[in-house]
Amino acid sequence: MNHITDWTDGDPSFATYSTTHELGPGLSSAEDVLLRLRIRERPREVYESSATELEILFDKRTLHVDKASGRVVDEGQKPRFFLRVANWLHLNRGKKAWTYVADAYAAALLFLATSGMFMIAGRKGFVGRGAVFVLLGIAIPVAYVTIAGQ
Fold first, then answer.
1. Model confidence pLDDT, tens digit, residues 52-81
2. CB burial of residue 62 (10 Å; 0-12, 13-18, 19+)
3. Which of 37, 78, 85, 112 has the most crowded Cβ, counting Cβ within 10 A?
């Protein structure tokens, strides 16, 4: 979610694609195009954008048809499995149940981080260099928030 502006197609959950099909001249209707491309999905909308161009719209896909030349440009989005699921969980789309799971996971991570500070004794433990790491771990986000003006 921090890098959402870095995705060229705008949505990390979906990959944008564009495929061109040459079906030959003389396409007469949307049904003809769907039959030739073996698409069984029912379109949400079909309209003629001009005398020779036809648009066939689905939920995550659009077919741009040039009836005269028989060229069909298939544009759409395909889900990226892992990123789509991760974003769904990150944005808490699962609501109440996922809130409890995430809270329990955060508590377990806090326990692991806290208990890990005391596992090594002496100069290499919490009293020695461990304190430096803890202070750095606190100082970095505090400095960022201070500099950012929040």
1. 899 999 988 999 999 889 999 999 988 888
2. middle
3. 37
16 closest CA partner among 47, 57, 62:
62
Comparing CA positions, the residue from 74, 70, 72 lying closest to residue 28 is: 70
8-state DSSP, 78: E
Q: Whole-angstrom distance between the N-terminal and C-terminal Cα of the chain?
A: 20
Tens of pLDDT, residues 31-50? 999 998 999 999 999 998 88
d(CA 140, CA 106) in angstroms, rounded, equals 20
Q: Please give the pLDDT value at position 150.
A: 64
Q: Is the pLDDT confidence value at 113 over 90?
A: no
Q: Report how far residue 137's alpha carbon sits from residue 69's, in angstroms, rounded to the nearest whole number.
A: 63
Tell me the helix, strand and coil percentages in the chain, rounded to 5: 45, 20, 35
Q: CA-to-CA distance for 20 and 9, rounded, in angstroms?
A: 19
**Given the structure tokens 């099909």, which residue do they identify?**
21
Q: Give DSSP secondary structure letters for 8-54.
A: TTS-TTEEEEEEEEE--S----HHHHHHHTT--SPPSEEEESSSSEE
